Amino acid sequence: MNLERRRDNQQWLLDQMVKTTGRVINFAYEQRVVPPEVKSYAMIPRVMEKYARHTESIARGAEQAGHFVTARELYWHACEQYREAQHSIFEDDNPEKIYLHGKMLECFEKIMKFADHPIERVEIPFEGAWLQGVFHRVPGAARTPTVLFLPGMDMTKEAILDPIHHPFVMRGLNCLHLDGPGQGTSNIRKIRVTADNYPRAGKAAIDWLVKRPEVDPQRIAVSGFSFGSYWGMEVAAYDERVKAVATGAACYGPKHAIFEQASPRFKQVFMYMAGIHDEAEFDRMAEQMTLDKVAPKVRCPSLQVVGEYDPLAPLQDVVAIYKKVPRPRELWVCENDFHVPRGTENFGGTSFYGFLADWLNDALAGRKPADLDQIVLVKQKEGPGPYASPVTGAGVRLPDRLGGSFAGLSDAQKSP
Fold first, then answer.
1. How far is CA 91 from the centre of its chain?
2. Is 4 a member of any domain?
3. In this predicted model, what pLDDT tens digit does every residue of 284-341 receive, in sequence order?
4. What is the C-alpha separation between 189 and 207, in angstroms, rounded?
5. In 273-396, beta strands by DSSP E
């Protein structure tokens, strides 16, 4: 077997982590993603397919019985299981990958059919190819504020956000989910992600949106999660039609942590997304993927969200990028959290994305003052969450977070 990456020889360790934690990434969390039946990474596609096929068969029974709400929920569960199954394969033209991805799309078609709000699969022209999106619309609305949502590396446009209880649509926002270069359907179509083409994909999506009668072209926002947080900030800087940006699960800073220190799966998947098989070539690309030069070009209100101990984006790196973004700007630091703030105690166990939608609604309504510049420590077990008063000074580090201030070396620490 030819190993493409230095850390591919750690597969035995990844297999053990999959077996013991039920996860392939973000091992700090307790919840299993794959069932105990999965004993190694290679087992994920076929075991998850079996679970998905079972769930889908129950969904079909519910549909045939006329129980469409139940069917919708089951198809959504099956869709997520097929997504996890297909994402574990990162190889072009792999028949299992193509089959499992196709089953995911098939289940999502049923969700669109039985949804409470209009959902349509759309095709967006992009540099001689077509990017596929899913457009969620506020029922009966015209010229409505609209969000372009960018999924993360391990996500697809079907998976995020929840199509049954869509947090943006529920708050009066249309939402276009995009499989950008390297993601989801773009993977199948071999539309590769490069160091600089995602902002152009975002522009193409906004070009498409402003032609829709349901969309208010003066109230367009961008959101994103995980690697979508990085791309979201890029799109906001690239396209002046973006009037607000709110992203979470920070990937804003340098990419060394995500590609060299975290689970080997991240680099394996992203090299596939980029269509690069030479690690040195990929490393040169990854070195360019920083917001240092991009952040100062953001011209709209911006919200960034990071876990205090996010292993993919060290807090000090995120704060450094935050300080480069022009006002109005806001940073939420999720106390004692890691990379995925969804459903955590910091946000009361509710949908994290609802808070992003609320923030975007306020920004699009002009309720963010031009001089906004605040860091909020979103505590885990106390306080009013993101509605807490901003911290002062460095705020999120000792001794500032205890109400003191850093005064340098004490007399006892200094040399005589």
1. 22
2. no
3. 999 999 999 999 999 999 999 999 999 999 999 999 999 999 999 999 999 999 999 9
4. 21
5. 302-307, 329-334, 373-378
Q: What is the CATH number of the domain that holds 383?
A: 3.40.50.1820
Tell me the per-residue pLDDT of 244-295, one tens digit each, with 9 for 90 and over: 999 999 999 999 999 999 999 999 999 999 999 999 999 999 999 999 999 9
Structural contact between residues 215 and 241, judged by C-beta atoms closer than 8 angstroms: no
- Three-state secondary structure along 108-141? HHHHHHHCCCCEEEEEEEECCEEEEEEEECCCCC
123 in any annotated domain: yes
Q: How many domains does the chain have?
A: 1
Residue 275 lies in a domain: no
**For 29-86, how does the pLDDT look when each residue is reduced to its tens digit (9 = 90+)?**
999 999 999 999 999 999 999 999 999 999 999 999 999 999 999 999 999 999 999 9
Beta-carbon contacts of 170 under 8 Å, excluding residues fewer than 6 positions away, are 354, 357
The neighbouring-strand residues paired with 245 are 222, 302
Question: Hey, what are 287's tokens?
Answer: 């070195």
Look at the chain and count its residues.
416
Domain contains 43: no
Nearest to 74 by CA among 56, 61, 86: 56
Residue 261 burial (CB count, 10 A): 12
Burial class (CB in 10 A: 0-12, 13-18, 19+), 183: buried
Contact assessment for residue 89 and residue 97, using Cβ atoms and an 8 Å cutoff? yes
Other CB atoms within 10 A of residue 370 CB:
9
Distance CA 45, CA 254 (A): 31
At residue 393, the pLDDT reads 65
d(CA 246, CA 351): 15
Question: How does 392-412 read in b/e, with b if 16+ C-beta sit within 10 Å?
Answer: eeebbeeeebeeeeeeeeeee
Q: CB–CB of 78/52 below 8 Å?
A: yes
AA identity, residue 118: P
Reply yes or no: is the peptide bond before residue 341 cis, omega within 30 of 0.
no
Domain interval for residue 331: 118-254+290-400
- Among 195, 150, 187, 147, smallest CA distance to 167 is for 147
